[in-house]
Amino acid sequence: MIDLILTIIGEILIAVGVFCSLVASIGMLRFPNFFVRLHAATVGSMGGSFLPIIGAGLIALGSDFPDKWMFFGGLIVAAIIVMLVSPAGSHALARATHRARVAPVEPKVTDHLKEDEDEKEGEKD
Amino acid sequence: MNTKTVISLLVIISSLLAISYAIADQATGVIPQTGLRNLASFYLENTLNPSNKSYWTASPEATSAIVWDYRGFDTFFETSVFYLAIVGCTLVFELYEPPKSKTTKQTELGLTIIVKVITKIVGILIVCVSASIALHGQLTPGGGFQGGAALAVLPILFIITMSRFALDRKVNDTSMIIIRALGLCGIGITVILPLFLGFITNNNAYIIQNQMKPDALVSLPSTIADKMMGGSLWMLNVSEYIAVGAGFTLAFLLLSLPERSFKKILEEEKYATY
Amino acid sequence: MPLIETFLAAYIMLTSVATLIISLYGVFYKPHLTKKIISITIFGDAVNIFSAIVGFRYIYPVAPPILLTENPTAQDLTNFLEVAVDPVPQALVLTAIVIGMAVVSFMVFLALNVFRIYHTLDTRKIAEQRKRSEE
Hints:
Chain A is an all-alpha fold.
């Protein structure tokens, strides 16, 4: 019984991952500028790879595999690494792009980061 | 068309013909095969065979058994090729002044604090995962080189997020060379260990011997505390893990040297005389 | 073997041989050193994939060459021999990957030093500069 539940939860997670990957690829193609596209890419890496990895681990746990706990542990560690690294990576990308001023920040209400950087440069001069 | 072009064309066409002929003539056997070759069935049958221990390796993973036991000499020289490549890299980059950072503040170096904290957390995970890959080399896919290559992701991450100068405070070239030499010494000791055992117990023994053979009754312990260790396999894997991890770290430390530590020397040596 | 499988095997062979030849073309005819290094890595990868295919077995329950029991009986070993793939090409690929890695890292270091001296990696420009410096 518990095996069946684990397998079904894993399959649902993989299906959600497929959906997220599709949405992320459409967003990458259709969104207007760099920062919004970065949002789509992060949806792709969090929804499209973090959730399916957990789902695969649950499916491995639900099957009658030999050494299934080893597979589950490895997949959970991989999922944790993806979960930690992908937001930090897109943060670093966004920050570098903003500092290099190569992409327009749109849509925006106000840009405090740019004001701060301008102040700092003014102090240096 | 000069001579060089003609020779290159000849080389390309002749290699195409040779590979095509080899495949069509089935020099590699039918591809994809359905049976097993004799050599493969010998290895698969003997790698963990408790009923016939004359050629066994005490490791359930046939690929690791081939890499470090049946064909140990291949891997020994492969390790020396890697060692010599890193030695060559250090020799090519020998002439440099140790760079100094322009600022001493940790916060001004590298990326933002978010990325730095994440790098530290992920660094611990990377060390755990790579050690697990190396230590389970005799049970699951993996081994020393794979674990060392996974460990080498850590210095790259540190160099990118915290800059080279932050990494310089923890490790430097000399310490990496020493750690790598320790790993290689581990391989050397494991290779010679059967000879000592044979000398003590007055038996025949071979270099890189793992388990006892019909004419050499010396064997390293195949299980430690009821865990399968595969005799010499785990020692070789751990040594290779240390050596490869330190070697890659050394290569990345050299690759991330700032250009200003080379330019002065290159001008002094008058390499650039054009 | 049925027709579709023969076709698939021929397709895999053709693509790997084509990759080999294209990477050789890159090594010989591309003037930029970085592209030559990339071509050499592609050459090594194509050879590795080819060897992995040589070791593959076209049967249905196919397994990696790893025993899953710690104390196998004779029956276990017979079953293992029926499903496991050939481990020898895998071990050779492992060795080849390490040596390829070592060679590529050495080439990258040399190319970096060439760039420091000549400020370019284009072999034609390097030859020009050398000719000029000899005069």
